[in-house]
Each structure stands twice: as structure tokens, then as C-alpha cells.
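URGENT: need a sanity check before tomorrow's submission.

F., can you look over the Patatin-like phospholipase family protein record below? I want to be sure the sequence and structure line up before it goes out.
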Amino acid sequence: MTAGTKRISLGLQGGGSLGAFGWGVLDRLLQETALEIVAISGTSAGSVNAAVVADGYARGGGREGARAALERFWYGLSSMASMVSPARPSPVDWATGGGTLATSPGYQLMQLFAGILAPPISPLSMNPMIPLLSTLIDFERVRACEEIELYVPATNIRSGTGRIFTRSELDARMIAASSCLPYVFAPVVIDGESYWDGSFVGNPSLSPLVERGPADIVIVQNNPIARPGLPKTMSDIMSRTSEIAFNISFVRDISEIRHLGGIIDVEDSDSIHSADVRLHLISANEELQKLHLSSKFNTELPFLLHLRQLGVATAEQWLKQNLDLIGKLSTMNPMRVQKAEALNTSKV
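C-alpha cells as predicted:
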């Protein structure tokens, strides 16, 4: 640790393609020499970003290696998805903007199969995430990375409980398990147990970060809790119900941290003093709320680059306003999360 640097851990949410927003946030944070990232808890797309960062570090490139690895991954993901994914924007979708796939024939077909076929016999039952991840990420390097600890949750289908995988054991199956949407992919089997998406139990899982430090936890929020309208199609209903379920675990974790005494409320203040944990939130909630629910399946490069730039700009503004407060107090008010009010507490 360099003298004067602030040690932080990161909590990265899932959200499919919205993980490209997290890519942008990470890209900016990795350029900030005043910060040292020592641990990452990532779920679904957040777990992917976490593994890519560790891969980049272990290549010997440090921060710049991690930034380069993230760029390679997301460009590679878009290229590979263009060859296998049926979810491609239609001309109407391109004209509408917002990353929507609402009129994409391939997306509608994918959702139709998801609604009427069990995942083991659906077109995506082979879980293309595993070979894709194995191609784009060197998991031997991830396991060998000593600079950053990783925590990746997945949901045990049989017991209904979560399992947290750590860096030293990570492989493509575990990241795929953390990203396994039940109505799209067949369960991922690890050690004889079947797993679904980790967002059911932690989005992200904050407990290992609270238990093992450092005290400053920066959460990168991809998923808006509130949305302005009601879902009108079956595919939108399925997407929104998953989004709500995944957000419940996030709100629960914030509530538990607050009630267990890690955070002490300060009356009439936007900042929360903390005895043991200092929470921070980087969110572009208002912008991400505008995106159609189907955008989480959009892997077109222009859309991913738009999300990346949004992440960079959001992190830049957050750092300007909050960097000096890291190590001193929380900049996130957990009461606002519990009330599902404006979550953009960084005032971006």
C-alpha cells in the first residue's frame, strides 16, 4: 500500500449488459491512484467484471492491465454474442434508442421459449456463458491474483441458500452460476449441487466485505429499484419480477448493516457516520431507469460503449464530490435505499 492511498472494497451488482456501466466505473476508479482496491464482491455481471479485473492484474499489468482486460472482455463479448445470440435490435429498436430489444424478433423468440420450455430443453440450456468465459478469461491467472480478493455468490436451488465462492477456487462454472437466470439457462452444477443466479441472495453480497474489511465499501449500482411504468408484455413482466427479487437482497443487506450497528444515523444529514463500516454508492439511477428492461440482453457494441461512457462520467463526478470523504464517513444514506427513494445519493 502506497502512503496516502485509501483502501476500499467494491460491491458490483449484476444486470446483464448493464454490467458495461460497471466497466466504465471500474475504468475510472482504476485510474485514481489515491484509491487501492483490495477486495471485490460481484454478482452476475458484477462477478464477470471482478474476475476480469483480477485476470488483468495477474497478467502483470496492475491497474492498466486491469483496464485493458476489461476493454478486451467487453469488445470480445460483443463480438462473440453477435455470432450466437438471437437478441439483436431491429431497425425499430435502433430508431427508438435506449438499448431496447422490444421489437427484436430474436429477443421475442428467446422470451417465448423461456416462457414455455423448461431451461434443460430451451435453446440456451447448454449455458453458453461457460465456454465464453473460458475463452475470454484466464482463470488460472484469476486464482493466482494476490492483489485483490474476490467474492462471488450463487444460489443453491435445493437449499435456497447462498454459497460464496472466493478467488482461490474460481472457475468459469462459478461465474456462470452467479449469472444463471432461471428462466433462460439450465442450472450450473458444482460439487453435485445446482445453482442459479447469485442475485437472489446478494446483489452484491456485502457480508464478506463487512467481515473482512476495509471499512469503506463502494457499491456500484446497475439496477434501478423503482421504474416509472408498469410492464406490459410477458417478457417484461418476467424481467421486472427478477429485477424486484434481485433488489430485495440488496435492500436487505443495507438494512442489516444499519440495524446491526455498523452505521449510526446522523439526524437531518445526508451523510452517515460509521463506527465499523462506511458505505458509498455510485449510481446513475435516473439514466438507467430510462432503459427498457430488454436492454439487459443487448450486447451491441455501440450500446455497451454508451453504458461504459456513462459509468466513466458517473464515477468521475462521484470522485470529485466524495474522494476526500473516503476513510472519514459514509456518503450513502441507507434509509433512502430502504425507502426506495432517489438512490443517487452521490448527487451525480
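My own read: The chain has a mean pLDDT of 82. The chain has twelve helices and ten strands. If you see anything odd, call me.
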